[in-house]
Amino acid sequence: MSDLSAPLDLLLLPTWLVPVEPAGVVWRDHALGVRDGRIVLLAPREEAMLHAAKEIRELTGCLLAPGLINAHGHAAMSLFRGLADDLPLMTWLQDHIWPAEARWVDEEFVRDGTELAIAEQLKSGITCFSDMYFFPEIASELVHKSGIRAQMCIPVLDFPTPGARDAGEALRKGLKLFDDLKLHPRIKVAFGPHAPYSVSDDKLENVRMLAEELDAGIHMHVQETAFEVQQSLELHGVRPMARLSRLGLLGPRFQAVHMTQVDDEDLALLVESNSSVIHCPESNLKLASGFCPVERLWNAGVNVAVGTDGAASNNDLDLLGETRTAALLAKAVAGSATALDAHRALRMATLNGARALGLDEQTGSLELGKSADMVAFDLSRLAQQPVYDPVSQLIYASGRDCVQHLWVGGKQLLDDGHLTRLDEQRILVTARAWGERIAGKAH
Ligand SMILES: CSC[C@H]1O[C@@H](n2cnc3c(O)ncnc32)[C@H](O)[C@@H]1O
Ligand SMILES: [Zn+2]
After folding, report:
1. Which of 36, 229, 243, 333 is deepest in the core (most CB within 10 A)?
2. Which ligand 1 atom sits closest to the C-alpha of 157?
3. Pairing label, strands 38-44, 27-28
4. Domains along the chain with CATH numbers
5. Phi then psi dihedrals of residue 88, to 5 deg
6. Residue 362 near residue 408 (C-beta atoms within 8 A)
7. Cβ neighbours of residue 172 closer than 8 Å, sequence gap 6 or more
């Protein structure tokens, strides 16, 4: 319990403060105070200035918002960025990515690739990400060291993977990770069965049982393409969502990634079960997978979050850009310019992400008592003028280069665009060396 009369650790004075909850609100000339890693003060600037603070930051021209939440990705795949472009999902995955993973992915690859991804995400305004990849115990070390927040998913597939001879071993190692990290303040472990077409019923039943017992999330690629739905109808007689429902996987802890195919029955299952959907528009566009009907889902009450997917199918981890794509695409898909307006788009990239990952009591909005996970976007540049609505300017007229400062749990991880805990130069050199090795050019 923090001493309320003690000085604040940090007092931020932005031009605009967008808490996300309450929805649609922009506070001008307000301040945010932090003590012991939590938000303890939200007040008009003049009133806030009466409080003593160890550090005061003037953020003139900046919009202070909750940190962005990248609700789906494969961090270490950043080392495969640009390796196999302009291909449809199954060709990309089966003929290029899975062979490359079998050849290259080991502990060292995951360590270096995850660090690269974390550095890029922090510089893009992301304070929390979900990771679904091999050797999650190694990736977790990088999350711990860097100060970012994450959901780490235990990968489960029907075939041997880097780091696990079979699904049984993957789950055993995953349970140990769950136990090791159960008290970690920034890491939450979830289950990551890859997709309905790559995980059989018996393994999904195991996942359901364990997730229930541990109250853990289940994060899964679902209905990414029409082909996947067709194949499921042929093999199982039902669509993937109906099969997952029959197996008892759906529920508030279920995170359905992609969902480009949604019929009325799928929608009813999502609504009834209170499952979340994680929309990855740029990966879906690049692999020509299809279009997630975001507006329809949102209007039906489904919690929709946003993710970049891995850098091998995107090809960046730019969640601000992803959110802009989502907002534009939603209008085209719905045939309505009012679909996914800028304020809702920002909510999708923050609070909805936190809710999908089961972290909305800790993060996702700037509310008293929540963790001080925040980002200051600089809106003072030429291409952002004039500013009528700062949220509109952020979503439609800003790139990730406007990310100025970032904090997680009150700790500053990005200061004037510079990483405070990671060595950007070393990460760059290491990533280039991997590129040379993988391209066969290393000596
Ligand atoms: C369970 S570990 C992750 C596994 O998923 C592969 N992957 C990356 N992106 C996608 C995607 O969009 N759909 C399906 N599978 C994907 C990744 O290469 C790993 O093998
Ligand atoms: Zn993915």
Report:
1. 229
2. 1
3. unpaired
4. 8-66+371-409 (2.30.40.10), 68-357 (3.20.20.140)
5. -75, 160
6. no
7. none
Q: Residue 11 in contact with residue 42, Cβ under 8 Å?
A: no
Q: What is the complex's ipTM, to 2 decimals? A: 0.99
Angle (nearest 5°) at CA 271 between 302 and 219: 70
Ordered per-residue pLDDT tens for the chain, 443 residues: 556 679 999 999 999 999 999 999 999 999 999 999 999 999 999 999 999 999 999 999 999 999 999 999 999 999 999 999 999 999 999 999 999 999 999 999 999 999 999 999 999 999 999 999 999 999 999 999 999 999 999 999 999 999 999 999 999 999 999 999 999 999 999 999 999 999 999 999 999 999 999 999 999 999 999 999 999 999 999 999 999 999 999 999 999 999 999 999 999 999 999 999 999 999 999 999 999 999 999 999 999 999 999 999 999 999 999 999 999 999 999 999 999 999 999 999 999 999 999 999 999 999 999 999 999 999 999 999 999 999 999 999 999 999 999 999 999 999 999 999 999 999 999 999 999 999 996 65
Measured between alpha carbons, how far is 130 from 140 in angstroms, rounded to an integer?
A: 11
Ligand approaching nearest to the C-alpha of 256: 2
Report the DSSP beta bridge partners of residue 131. 152
Instruction: Name the closest-CA residue to atom 14, ligand 1.
Output: 221
- Ligand 2 centroid – CA 291 distance (Å): 15
Neighbours of ion ligand 2 (CB under 5 A): 309
Does the annotation list 36 as a binding residue? no
**Ligand 1 contact via 282 beta carbon (within 6 Å):** no
